[in-house]
Amino acid sequence: MSNEPICRDTLLVESPNGLHLVPCSQIARLVSEFSGTVMLHKGDRSADASAVIQIAALGAAQGTELAVVATGEGCEQIVAHLKELFASGFPTPEPSEAE
Q: Edge-to-edge, what's the strand order for the sheet holding 37-42?
């Protein structure tokens, strides 16, 4: 049996457009900074939170609750950051004036 830390929580999709590709890419980008594993669960379906297409395939509309399970050192922090991202409604960065 592994002694690796495991953190679980629930995330609520508050964004009016649900988890389309932009929020999915924000989730995957955030999770890619974590050395452990993060899985999202919707009912009997699961997605690796570092894979944009897998997250999008969950079809999480506004109001959907997703279970998040993170495994590895720092799992508390990644779950907290995901909760913040979901609560923020996935803001899109303003384009820079140089673009």
A: 6-12, 65-71, 37-42, 45-48
Which DSSP string corresponds to 32-96?
HT-SSEEEEEETTEEEETT-HHHHHHT---TT-EEEEEEESTTHHHHHHHHHHHHHHT-PPPPPP
Amino acid at 97: E
**What pTM value is reported for the model?**
0.89
Domain segments of the chain as ranges: 6-88
- What topology does CATH give the domain 6-88? Histidine-containing Protein; Chain: A; (3.30.1340)
Can you tell me the distance from the alpha carbon of 60 to that of 80, in angstroms, rounded to the nearest whole number? Answer: 20
CA-based nearest residue to 90, from 99, 98, 82: 82
Q: Which two tokens stand for residue 24?
A: 């999915």
- pLDDT tens-digit readout, 13-41: 998 999 999 999 999 999 999 999 999 99
